[in-house]
Design goal:
The protein is an alpha/beta fold. It has a single domain (about 5-274), classed as TIM Barrel (Alpha-Beta Barrel). It contains 9 helices and 10 strands. The chain has an 8-stranded parallel beta barrel. α1 packs parallel to α2 and α3 crosses α4. It is globular. The model has no long low-confidence stretch (mean pLDDT about 95). The structure holds zinc ion (ZN) (2 copies). One zinc ion binds near residues 176, 178, 220 and 222.
């Protein structure tokens, strides 16, 4: 059985996220720990988990991921923004532990033109600090980016570099198919690249999104499965690689009515992996 999930709203309570995911045919999900556009987070003591845990048991539900907010930049030259980024990521790690999650998915941010080499030591040090200050059962997952505006880890070599410089069982990564396509990796051959870099063992989550933009466009616009520029055959090839078989797959597509992942997209994903 494969874990098929979607990014869903947790408004009204964490258990509502499970209901929403279940309603569209999922056995896994991703959510935000708060609004993705504001820094403020609820006191962790106020986060109610018991109803969510019982629903997950009842539905025999799989992994639950937390997506970090979009304002984070671990390469920011602005000390205040950096401080806020560290604080919210430590919160999300504690949140991941509290909800018995499978990891927080993080866009590391942008070097803002300075270049990867100029920021990578600091970025590694910041991630190490977050890991050190987090519960043992929390996981930090680096997501690959689409190659836009100096975004870190659009090149998988950068993810490899971070793994070479941070050794921790709490560190993994998440592969987004839309971002890879936009950054110039096609799904027919990217598996070989992941093998070459030795990154399969740390790959904990796959974001399955089609792309509104062309190959190597450097643009990050997700599209519904089968409606974008990634060929069905390419999705099928990648998602059925033996290395991918046990990795949870999460949809972050706009949905047919624009309200986020829906049952028709889940059906398409299931058809890709049958
Ligand atoms: Zn993603
Ligand atoms: Zn994206």
């Amino acid at each position: 059985m494969r874990y098929i999930g979607a990014h869903v709203s947790a408004s009204g309570g964490l258990e509502k996220a499970v209901e929403r995911a279940k309603a569209i045919g999922c056995n896994s999900l991703q959510l935000f720990s708060g609004s993705p556009r504001v820094w403020k987070r609820k006191d962790l003591d106020q986060v109610e988990t018991s109803k969510m845990f019982s629903l997950r048991d009842e539905y025999n539900f799989g992994p639950v991921f937390t997506h970090s907010l979009y304002l984070v930049n671990l390469a920011s030259p602005n000390p205040e923004l950096l401080e806020k980024s560290l604080r919210v990521l430590k919160y999300d790690m504690a949140f991941d532990s509290k909800i018995k999650g499978s990891g927080i998915v993080v866009h590391l941010g942008s070097h803002l033109g300075a270049g990867w080499e100029a920021v990578r030591d600091d970025v590694a040090a910041h991630i190490s600090e977050i890991l050190k200050d987090s519960p043992d059962d929390a996981t930090f997952l680096i997501e690959n980016s689409a190659g836009q505006k100096g975004k870190l880890c659009s090149n998988l070599e950068e993810i490899k570099w971070l793994f070479d410089h941070i050794s921790s069982p709490k560190l993994g990564w998440c592969f987004d198919t839309c971002h890879a396509h936009a950054a110039g990796y096609d799904l027919l051959t990217v598996g070989d690249e992941i093998s070459r870099l030795g990154l399969w063992k740390d790959l904990k989550c796959i974001h399955v999104n089609d792309s509104r933009d062309d190959f190597d466009s450097g643009r990050d616009r997700h599209e519904n499965l089968g409606k974008g520029n990634i060929a069905e055959a390419d999705f099928k090839h990648f998602l059925n690689l033996p290395e991918v078989a046990e990795i949870p797959m999460i949809l972050e597509v706009p949905g047919l009515d624009g309200n986020g992942p829906d049952a028709p997209n889940i059906e398409v994903l299931k058809s890709y992996v049958e």
